[in-house]
Amino acid sequence: MSDIITLENITYVYSPGTPYEKKALDNISVSFEKGTVTGIIGHTGSGKSTLVRLLNGLERPSSGRVLLDGEDIWLKPKSIGKIRFRVGLVMQYPEYQLFEETVRKDIAFGPKNMKLPEDEIERRVRETAKTVGLSEEVLDMAPFDLSGGRKRRAAIAGVMAMTPEVLILDEPAAGLDPEGRKKVFDAISAYKEEHGATVIIVSHSMEDMAERCDRLCILNNGRIAAYGNSGDIFGDPSVLIGAGLDVPEITAVAYKLSERGLKLGKAVFTVSDAAEAVAEILKGRKAGSDGMGKGGFTL
Amino acid sequence: MTDTGKTGYIQCRNLSFSYEPKPESGPVKYALKDVGLTFEKGEFVAVIGRNSSGKSTLAKLFSLIIEPTSGELVIDGKTVSSELTDAEILDIHRKVGMVFQNPDNQLIATVVEEDIAFGPENLGCPPDEIRRRVDSALAAVSLTDYAGAEPARLSGGQKQRVAIAGVLAMQPECIIFDESTAMLDPIGRRDVMNIMRSLKDKGITVINITHLMDEAARADRIVILDGGSVIAEGTPKDILSDTALLEQYGIIPPQCTALLNELRKKGFDLPSGVTPDEVADIIAAAAGL
Amino acid sequence: MSRSITLGQYYPASSVLHRADGRMKLILTVVFMVMCFLCKSLASFALLLLFTLGLVFASTVPLKIVLKSVRMIIFILIFTFVLNIFFTPGTGEPLLAFWIFRVYKDGIWKAFFMSFRVFCLVIGTGLLISYTTSPVDITHSIESLLMPLSKIGIPVHSFAMMMFIALRFIPTLSDDAEKIMTAQRSRGVDFSSGPLMGRIRSLVSVLIPLFVSSFRRADELAVAMECRCYHGGEGKTSLHVMKVRFSDFVILFVFLAVAAGTVLLNGIKFGYSM
Prior knowledge:
The complex is a heterotrimer of chains A (299), B (289) and C (274). Chain B is α/β, with parallel strands linked by helices and 289 residues long.
């Protein structure tokens, strides 16, 4: 598998030369592999929002390079707009960007800016609406009349309709109820499957991240504290705690069990994995004691 | 004077609300229908439910933004109706404080202490009394060092704590949190949750309206709303281990209880637990440790 | 990322001028303006300059920052200067004459005096109000000074509250605007180039969401205020009581003394006087 997007020795300084000068990112290098789902985790002010804005060329690094498919995106600063079609960014609370009279028109806004032909735009709107689970009737409604969850998905569709190779989402499910969260994440998975896209999700929700991401990148104070497979990261909660983050409840339980001398074997971070592992242990114990009992009997 | 008998601090009887009580066609659509609920003084209750379950309507009723379409809502012995005098409305606002979702939209002043002073100022407290209240409210949310700060420079969690202090300065008897943690990061959420607990310990009635199960699990009692009706009420342990109930209403329990429920499905007979500590203890005990 | 936007030019510090009562500063501003127009002779202008420099010193605002506000009115200064130099009728022989312009000695003096007056006016009022009084204090002070008008039915408190909230929400809304613009840029909007119609259309994609969010914020704020017992200005007290202290009167006395001084110095007809 090859890397689609790479950050090379990126440093980003805010308001340089003023009293508010602040180093948001400090010499960061990281690559995102094609077709993976990577989670970026970090507390407020860890630099993750800056990282995301660098990835689609909204900000220009103070030093270092951002490579898309091996090419520096700032090689031709004039055509940075084209990069934003290839690396789509869904900002936090994206429903605040909706403005057209109908959902249909709003989803078409991005493709229109790409100057695609009318029928292609039409096709994309229908296709994306399906991906995010919005029906035909919803397409003709005013975005402001939708429920919170639908509004969110309509806004996400507005970025998906540009069919970016890399889709970045900043807290895509923030503030939604469990059902709404699930629908948003399902939509993201569907998009990834349909387009073979690379997905980068920024979120505070450890549970969601544990469940949805292949890779995790932990940011702390503008540096990468850890980067690796979800299993490895959650296997060692000390890194998360060190970065001022919460661990998923399941990881906390596993950690507390290991303190009591019950090792779950491998790193678990989803409920079903944990149930499996705990059941294994409990069965083992039972079988052990049963066996002993039986053994005692036959003797 | 009607004798309401033995009632809670906030009492709903057959409480219904419709945003459109006289529709042009079709039946009346209710946001809340025949809700019967009692919130006792000093209780910590979580009201949970998905979007459009009626939980935000409940919050609006409690904050007197809307009036019941039918049924009765009694707050500290006063029945909410259009007949309340301005003084009575003011008194209910003082006693029942609200903390809303977006901290940016509830902070009024540009300096932390001035914002906290807003409530007592409206109540006409003398300046030295306001000062006393502001200082004690700041201490209660551990923001004493930020008295002179600009709210715009604070984190979301800190802003929300300023909002709580602003309510505390009115010396309320009950505080309703209307999805107050929805926009916060984990640290901010944890801080706000801890403050809720400490308020309860001070004898203030705390009602946390949320859709986050792991928050609900930290209350003393959970009320579940769905489709405008109360569908379950009970302690977190009872509610969260009732898998049939959870599945029927599509409620995703916090991971800890989900783990125990999953294990029960596999045939292990385990007691209920809510926090990681409890769950680890339960599993360790089952393993014979 | 909440950037804080400095409203106006407020320079946080705790100088004598910062601590002075806001209402007194508004009055002092009027006194200062009158003082500027009273100056007529070289001597009185010299006093005015000394006094203005004294104000800069007393405010502890760095001179560099104070001069920045002059940069904004540099064209007005030049205009005043040029206008006066060419159009002041004088006696005797013009120093310079071409086409319809005649430059007299009086003109040069007058141009110099007039620009100097504007210069001092800008620095002095800036120091008294914008640099040393926060926008919120200005609002409170105006409200307090205008309070007598509420007796004749003018809703002074409501106007002041509106102004106060508008000031409070400028940074929030500008943050909103920035976020919405970023979102639309991510959807391929180019705000800086392209045909005019396209750019107007781009603006619509920012303005509509901005309106929607302002209304939502206003709505939520109104509810939050009501829940915190806001019921207009009636019976409302304040954490900070505005009190005119002895020191405020001292400052007022200094101002009046200097004003009197300028009038006296007008009598010294050295150089030129208007």
